[in-house]
Known about the structure:
The complex is a heterotrimer.
Chain A: E1 6-15, E2 18-28, E3 33-37, H1 44-51, E4 59-64, E5 67-68, H2 74-80, E6 82-85, H3 97-104, H4 111-115, H5 121-134, H6 149-163, E7 167-171, H7 179-193, E8 197-201, H8 205-211, E9 214-219, E10 222-227, H9 229-234, H10 236-243
Parallel strand pairs in A: 3-8, 3-9, 6-7, 7-8
Antiparallel strand pairs in A: 1-2, 1-4, 4-5, 9-10
Helix pairs in contact in A: 3-5, 3-6, 5-6, 6-7
Chain B: H1 5-8, H2 11-35, H3 47-72, H4 80-99, H5 112-116, H6 132-156, H7 161-180, E1 192-193, E2 197-198, E3 201-202, H8 206-232, H9 234-244, H10 246-251, H11 256-282, E4 284-285, H12 292-305, H13 310-330, H14 335-349, H15 353-362
Antiparallel strand pairs in B: 1-4, 2-3
Chain C: H1 2-14, H2 16-19, H3 22-28, H4 34-47, H5 53-61, E1 64-66, E2 72-75, E3 80-82, E4 95-96, H6 101-114, H7 121-133, H8 139-149, H9 153-168, H10 173-184, H11 189-198, H12 206-252, H13 260-278, H14 288-310, H15 319-341, E5 357-360, E6 364-367, H16 368-390, H17 392-402, H18 404-409, H19 414-436, H20 448-461, H21 466-487, H22 489-506
Antiparallel strand pairs in C: 1-2, 1-4, 2-3, 5-6
Helix pairs in contact in C: 3-4, 4-6, 5-6, 7-9, 8-9, 9-10, 10-12, 11-12, 12-16, 12-19, 12-20, 12-21, 13-14, 13-15, 13-19, 14-19, 16-17, 17-19, 20-21, 21-22
Amino acid sequence: MKGRRLYLDGVSVVFDGFRALNNLALVVEPGEMRAVIGPNGAGKTTMMDVITGKTRPTAGVASFGDADLTRMDEAAIANLGIGRKFQKPTVFDALTVFENLELALKAPRGPIACLRWILSGEGRARVEEVMEETGLADRAQDPAGILSHGQRQWLEIGMLMMQDPELLLVDEPVAGMTDAETEHTAALLARIAGKHSVVVVEHDLEFVRALGCRVTVLHEGSVLSEGSIDHVQNDPRVVEVYLGR
Amino acid sequence: MSATTLDAAPSRLRLGLRAGMIGAVCLLAAFPVLNQLPETHALHVSDFLVSVSGKWICYAILALSLDLAWGYAGILSLGHGAFFALGGYAMGMHLMRLIGPRGVYGHPVLPDFMVFLGYRELPWYWLGFDSFAFAMLMVLLVPGMLALVLGWLCFRSRITGVYLSIITQAMTYALMLAFFRNDMGFGGNNGFTDFKELLGMPLNTGAARATLFYASLVSLVVCYLLCRWMTATKYGRVLTAIRDAESRVRFLGYDVTRHKLFAFVASAMMAGLAGALYVPQVGIINPGEFSPGNSIEAVVWVAVGGRGTLVGAVLGAFSVNGLKTWLTSAAPDLWLFVLGGLFVAVTLFLPKGLIGLLQGRGK
Amino acid sequence: MARLLAILLMLALALPARAQDAFIDALAGLGGGFGAQAEAADRLGTLGDPRAIAPMRALSDGRLLRRADGTLIIRTDGGAIEAATGAPADATGAETVRINNRVRVALRGALGKLQLVSPDAGERLAAAEAVFRSPSAENVPLLDAALARETQPRIRERMELALAASRLVATDAAQKRAGIATLGASSSPEARAILLEARAQNADLLAEIEAAVAAIDRRLAVRRAAETFFQGLSLGSVLLLAALGLAVTFGVMGVINMAHGEFVMLGAYTTFLVQQALRDIPGLAPFALPLSIPAAFLVAGLGGLLMERGLIRHLYGRPLETLLLTFGVGMMIQQAVRLAFGAQNREVTSPPWMQGTLLLPFDIPVTANRLWILLFSLAFFVLIVAAIRFTRFGLEMRAVTQRRPIAAAMGIRTGRVDALTFAFGSGIAGIAGVALSQIDNVSPNLGTGYIIDSFLVVVFGGVGSLAGTLIASFGLGLINKVLEPWAGAVLAKVFVLVAVMVFIQRRPRGLFPQKGRAAEA
Lengths: 245, 363, 521
């Protein structure tokens, strides 16, 4: 698999006069892990929305390899190899854990293909492998609706693993988790990260420090500072934004 | 491995329902035969019961089609009656062409209403309807095309929920207004009636009635199996996923518009087929079939039976229509109260319908 | 005898004292022989003196008497009057003047012309119309005379047209030109037809006639446009009334209420009941309609309150279920009204000031009730916007719909506000019913016809925006009426429906989308 880089430049998003993103630039190299931090309203989620096609930028360039992300819809971008984990886990409550993962498995996505779909032995093995990894193996036939919050997070991460994306966007993966769950999640993410580019949005600076990657600080829709965690923590502008005047 | 709520239910219930269904189909299949027995015989089935259950079978197909769209794909169509009526009109056009010179005015080609309205020749869109095969094609294609265009417009711009419901209702309302017009070439107010024959069978004979009855019953079984197959595959699970969390499905890389469109068009075609079977049995089709009330009644069938379960839709169609037939003769003033009450009761107390009730008892 | 009379007549004409009053002279002839009678009738006709009407009518009805001294007397219901002066007279010994068919024809013609100067305005207008339709050069002096005494502008206008049309068939080119100019300055389709007809005989004046026709066409086009505009506004006001309540319950609260139309219908029936109740109370009967407004607000608002507290509040956040539930409730309300009042239309009478037709500038005829409803709808709109913007209740309502948890945290009882907002929206629907009872049939399915239109208006205008609802109602009303002439009423409706759907493609949040991130959720 040839590596593709995520490239955002001059991206602005305006909602009725409110600038959610303002001339944002971000480059994530193939295989890189990047943490994005920033206060509330800094534009972190909007940035994710632009990359995954949920929001069209008012101006600017967003591309992944050769593909122009501003011209594609969510499904096309997902098929390009960009996966997203939402802040609030969304899984399909009426489907079982197994079925949730099966839906995420890389396979032709059209209606006819789905009608003719037969799960291969290989596919089944992959689903079972992911269920093992996420610790959901004994819940395989339970509907996702009855899982706990942590289990839903893992199921969603498992679905990302099934999608096998080249670039992974993770939005606040440990919000609202117990310490034990946080640990388990961090381990899961670390395992995926080895093979993919990852962008993690997080509030928790300790968690970011533990990731040990490059950090981008967003403020009011544009990049305030970028570098190692020590660099940004000592950047006077970052200190000002976080601590106030 | 299927996703329906029904399958999450105890298997005893599933077996029971399956046995009940097969039993019910066999019982229905016996109706035309029992109809032949002398009237004094204990097992005699009256003409009325045969004809009314033939209608209910068509309604059940409509309910199935609506359930596929609403119960599985989450598309609450308040205009499914339009697809039913369009299928009915396509069949009606074929039946009108078959009348030939036997009309009141005796014109060799033109139906009576056209002679009456001063048409010189058949409008272009009537051509081909003398052929049964062509008419059957149109029974499926016309509703299918309408669903394709409407669905594409709506799903593409992500019009969902109540907005979509209102638009579908507006669609059937607009069609009703349009079909009321004489210059549409569909008989205006009066629609089509006085049909003579179909496939060489005079329609007023018992044999024709029995044939239509069996055709409807077979169609119901085929449609049921088709829906069952569709919903049991991964496609069915994609639909359920779309129903519950549409945008999440997009982020998994599924083209939601195409999937919904596929289900909506398939559903519309099924509704068209139901209409086509209905028209020769009741002997008339007019713009009233487009009235929004009809569509919403079909929604009640599905809601009462239990949406998201195919058996529920069929059960709902039979039970609500049974109730309607009984009440409209026993206490006609009460029927609309009961129908309105069914809406209220089902939404407040029985969200899973009769099937949910059975499930609750099975547990 | 006849010869004697003729001599007498000539003598009379020669007498200077009498010559001042040609009417008196000619009148005497009516009492003469058949020949003299016909001649006198012709003269009286061309004289254009309204005093001649009564004696000639009397003659043709057999009520004209002649005394031995030759004085003509008209027999009236109660007594008799002198034909020349109108003074009371003694009819004893007077004998009825007889006429033959020739005289009858002459009388009819003369009376027809004299109607131009009749004391009755309606008759004068009708006469002007008649002369206008059958132009003839002979009418010119007659019309001149009539115009000299006419004071009513509307009749003058018709007479001038008639004069112009008559001049057009005269022989004199200058007269013709004047006629063409007058006709061309009008905006009447008949004048246009007369001009077109005259083209054949007047090859030399062709250019002028064409120019005059073009001028009329321009004016007619303007009038048609103005007429369409008003009809569009009128339809828009109806849509606005029907949609306003929905703009509150659906637009502001987000509750889909399919029984909205039934609340409108309840409002219309309340109007009917109030009218029935006050019918025999002389002091109050004229106020039945104004009194219906608060009554309808209360009835529909109470219905809404019961529905919200009893049913809808259990289904918040489940719009599809709410839709089905409210549809069911609507069905039951409709059936209840049908059982209580019968399926046939109930008659709601309009107060006198809402009846009749008015002429707006550009000669646009409008029915008074449509005009009142237009004004009412606008005033009502302003009132509702003010209520939401400036009252405590409006503030709480906006707070709850924008951020429920925060509003609750600030001590607002959200459940109460929900109930009151829904009751408010339903009450507005009831008031709409009062207005609609004036122009629509009051029947149990009154509301059904409005529900889809109302939703279209609210969605088109942008859910949550009352200003959007206003613009959308009038916009859709106008579009509908502009399309109607060439598409027909039904197809225009279908077209608008499709257009709204296509519009929603481009702007899924309507004309006036809600601002900010909240709308993205």
